[in-house]
Specification:
Length: 237
């Protein structure tokens, strides 16, 4: 089991940890600030700093075979630690923060395109996209850009909270994604609440306020099918 410190505090840049396992799949720690790929958000990269000061470059982070296992994928050719070694896990904070800003912005995009189911999405460094189940020419690039920047400038609080499986089942409108359903069966589901703007299940990392996102623009709207429109965002500054 890996304690996911990023879930309680997305702004943690490093933590001390102990190596619990090393295999061809990756390095497992007892606790970590590294977010594993999931929900359209890439896994973190960074380094593991050993007690002697040597560094192991981490090229990616993935989920393991169980829900509570996080695999730190070393860069090719890296020396490996031994189980029991003490390390300091340090993420590439600048990259992570850009991903956090874009992830939160995609939640704002859901609010800027209301009442449309999300059929897919992806977050990248400096850009992101969502696919919406909407007909024809229903989406306007300039109007969505304007609305997004209004929501960013509103500096709304972004707060994670939890609800029970039963409550989520009773409120199906909270789930915007058609292809990916939030994990249930653990008793509770994590929500991301952008005050007065958007509320939906999400396990990713986010900024604390929308004002941290900065100016954004819709760079393209693509036709991906009869009723599938892809909205591509990028940071404007």
């Amino acid at each position: 089991m890996t304690a996911p410190l990023f879930r309680d505090d997305a702004y943690l840049r490093s933590c001390t940890a102990r190596v619990t396992a090393v295999s061809e799949r990756g390095i497992t720690l007892d606790r970590t600030v590294f977010y594993p790929q999931g929900g359209g958000q890439p896994g973190d990269c960074g380094v593991l700093r050993l007690a002697d000061g040597s560094l192991i470059a981490i090229a990616d982070t993935r989920k393991g075979e169980s829900a509570d296992e996080v695999l730190h994928i070393p860069a090719p050719g890296s020396a490996l630690p031994a189980p029991g070694d003490a390390v300091t896990a340090e993420i590439d904070w600048e990259r992570r923060y850009r991903l956090m800003r874009m992830h939160t912005c995609l939640h704002l995009l859901c609010a800027a395109v209301p009442n449309a189911a999300v059929t897919g999405g992806q977050i990248a460094d400096g850009k992101g996209r969502l696919d919406f189940d909407v007909p024809g020419e229903a989406l306007d690039k300039a109007a969505i850009t304007q609305r997004l920047n209004e929501l960013v400038a509103g500096d709304h609080a972004v707060v994670p909270r939890w609800i029970g499986d039963d409550e989520l089942a009773a409120r199906p409108e909270l789930v915007r994604t058609m292809s990916v359903k939030p994990p249930t069966g653990q008793g509770s589901v994590r929500l991301v609440d952008i005050a007065g703007v958007d509320l939906q299940p999400c396990g990713g990392t986010h900024v604390r306020r929308t004002g941290e996102i900065g100016p954004v623009e819709v760079v393209k709207i693509e036709n991906k099918g009869r009723q599938n429109r892809r909205v591509i965002l990028a940071f404007a500054g």
